[in-house]
UniProtKB/TrEMBL annotation:
Protein name: histidine kinase
Keyword DNA-binding: no
Enzymatic reactions: ATP + protein L-histidine = ADP + protein N-phospho-L-histidine
Origin species: Maribacter spongiicola
Iron is among the record's keywords: no
Amino acid sequence: MFKSKNSSSFSLDWINQIPSSIVIIDTDFKLISASPRWQANFQLDLNAIEGKHFLNLFPEISQDLKARLQYSLDGLRDIKFKYNAKDCQYSSKDSIWHLNPWKDGYGNIIGVVIKVEPISKTQELEIELSKTKLILNQKSAVAKIGSWEFDVQKEELHWTPIVNKIYGLPAAFEPNLDEAIGYYIEESREIIKRVVFEAINSGKPWNEKAQLKREDGTIIWVNTIGRPKFKEGKCIRIIGTIQHLQDEVVQNVEVSNSIKIEYPLFEKVPIGLAIIDLETGVFLNLNQHMLKLTGFEKEYFLNKNYKQFVNAHFSSQSENLTQQLLEKGSFTPIKFTFSNNKKHLLNLKVTGTLVEDSTNVKSVLCTFENITSQFKLEKNLKNTIASAREKNEQLLNFAHMVSHNLKTHATNFSLLLNFLNDETGKIQRNKYMNMLFSASDNLSETIKGLREIVAVKSSINEEKKLLSLNESLFVVEQNVAGLLKETNGKIINEIPETTLVKALPAYLNSILTNCITNSIKYRCDDKKPIIILSIEENKSYTILSVEDNGLGIDLEKYGNELFGLYKTFHRNKESRGIGLYITKNQMDAMNGKITVESKPNEGTTFKFHFNKK
């Protein structure tokens, strides 16, 4: 009896009655039992080997076998292992071992069942074929030889992944014959078309050297071989190979050597240098400092067009750079980003100078400077300046808002006191006194609101509150009561009582005050000022519309300056060009916006879009 780790018991008597060659081992690789057939095949006696370490019985193959046994214990099924009899002492016949996990009644893996089957001739050939294919693929990769096949009847072309690499195409690219031939340069293309035609129609094989233009624009030499296959006198397919020849690389090495001779300081200067062919745009050579900067080997760049390594903005300027080189002998510095082999983004500045070697071949000597640290410092400085400018604008905005709002209160007090001084009736005087007390309370509230603005930091959305628009409007009406009485002005309120807007209280009061006082200030001399307030709603905004019958604004003339600081558009001695500037900044701070509709002498409508978020 064998007892598993969970104490479930198993009877192994069945193994003595099966005709198959089977052996069972536990999780410690100890032999538990074996069928009579297995014992006979390997000339082993169960009584002598039971409990022994299974791998010790086959030390010659233990290293390869142990890994497969471990995979089986991990739950993988039907793992195959070829047993070569000549390598071991227990059997004269080769066989295939099938390894499967051995489980208890609860599904726990408690060992491995190995079933041994004699290897057939077919299996032997399949195994050898797989080995041969693996070797051929490995050698093909080293030699850069790819194979292909063209089905003439179906007009279908198939090739191995090596061909994709030779063409510089992605692995997922599916070729056709026309596209494949189209990558050859014009002269070679005509040769390939001719040999394919002769192969199909005359059965003539080919072995040609040709020039291929890769996807990246690099031109390489290849050797292409094709063999037509006929059936019943008709060509049904062509099989062949294509090999990337190394001639061009050798030539480029020679160019590199000549460059080193002509530019002896190429490797000595402490900056990145590269030489690029003027006509083709391919890299001819790079110094060690450049390679260290990018983290790549030289082969990563050689014979490849520089456009592969720069962004689209840089590539789009290639014609302009070439023109500068031809006219001035150099091009002005240009900045671009480059991802090194560690995927870190570098900010580089490149300059180029036209050079000519002893054979009158023109190329471009480029210098590359790593400005990543400088770029970060500049970016931080710009952010700091922008932040400082924004804070200064906010401070100026606050100062103007204080001045503007307090001036409104001061004007209101002055008017009410004048009315009180001129009034002799007790009832009317009491009425003006109540208005003064109300104005005083409102002044206190304004000052309190201004203190709240000082406390506002950066999270304006967190400080916004849902406010009743009518309640805010009532406070503003009290503040401008003197102006309304003096001008016989009238406010028509069409805002529903339930209307709420998300705003900062002090900002909302300031916006309403500025808008209403402007409507009164810029009234027509022959009209009593009338101000109509109404509401629109959409998905994103609650829109307050403030319409008046005043002087209006020539938007075609002043539209771009409407919200500028100290910009005035009417001859009014009280105009200081502050109110609209403040209002615009307040709406922006609350993620809102303002729109204006106006015509001269026909009044103005301001629409305040209060963001609902």
